[in-house]
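Appendix B. Worked example

We walk through a single record from start to finish. Start with the input: the chain for F-box domain-containing protein, Pycnoporus cinnabarinus, length 437.
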Amino acid sequence: MTIPPSFVTIKTVHGVEVVERRVSLTDALSLEMQAIHVSSLSFSPIHPTEFYLLLPPLSKRMPFLEELEIVVRQSPSSKSPYLTMPSLELPGSNFLLLETLRLDGVALSMTSPFLTSLRHLVLTNYPDVQPRLLITDFMDALESCPNLEELEIRHYGGIFSTDTEEPRRPANLERLKKLTIQEPSIIISLLLEWLFVPVFADVHVTMDLTCAHMDMTEDCFGNLFHVILPTAQNMLPIRQEIVSIEVNYADNTYQVVGETPLGNKLVIEASFSADPLHHPLVRSIFYESILCQLGGVFHNSHVIIASFTGDLNAVTEDGWYLALTHFPLLLRLMATDTSGEPSSAVEHFFDALGHSADHARPMVSPHLQAICFRGATWNDWLWVYMTLSMQSRMRAGAKVESLWVEARGNGVDLEGKLKNAKSVLDAYTDKCSLLQM
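Next comes the structure step. The output line below is what the pipeline stores for this chain.
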């Protein structure tokens, strides 16, 4: 099989002028790159055999290099002979100005001090099956990069080894602005336990879940968040600053987004390799188990806005109630049901909101001011559910100021029915809008 030629993008500095050119890998390796003021190198993509050719030039000083990208084209075969490629070593003394390092399919050797000028580090697709880097060495190397602003690790966690007796020394990344991790939950847990992420950093973690290794039970789903979150609250302080949350369900992805008053976000995703939630019972168990964990994710936060989107037909009244009990300061609540017709999601939703002192359980979200529900399936009992819920909240001193419901249905004169229902609900809210989708 003929290997396609590889190319290199080179940026060089000539006074105040930056010149970019694209040359073949062979021509690039013939250049004295350390002598021609190279500011940026992008080897993307190259064949694994060509990676060996990069090692000699990258072992030399490149005092002007600010950006380095290497993408190695991996073989899809599990018997690939390139799984034992050597690790890339980048001595800090040779790359004094290097700010951006992006490696895809390359094993990186890291010791402290590492690249002290580094601002952006992206590591994806670790090419080996054996760990090569002690987690303690990795953390020490990161902490020796005082200007690090972005850290991205995707499918690279196989490089880390925990076979060390050294005490845990979390890396304090004081200037980090963005942390992205896409790994199995065990790797995410390891990294979050060892990284101190400042409160102003955006954090996005995606759990890659293999359905074949999940028993699809409540216990399994109920531990999804528990196993990845750091045990020490100060290790992920953004959790305590969240004021609004968005919960999104899709066919094979679950996502929860928390946002602070300053706009910083904590995003946690569970991404399945296939859709395990096609069975209604499994889907219901999954949704409710996740909802019950929201309080643990946003520990001691002051959430005032919450939004839920997806197939909400799988959420029972108890599921809504348990989810909302975590947020006693909630002011605005929005829900969008995408399950299609028919759906009982809206009835379960208002049943949970209507619990008051008249029942065995206390009223949820007693400060709630505005409710919006989109995608409700209309039936002749829906207005009764909503009226009873609003009545109950009013009696408990938790009157809702604004109620907005968008309904769908095939019944005759739906617009007239919504108008009649509004005339009843107007007595229990300051502003009521019932609209036909």
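Two observations about the output. Residues 382-395 form the longest helix (14 residues). Residues 304-437 form one domain.
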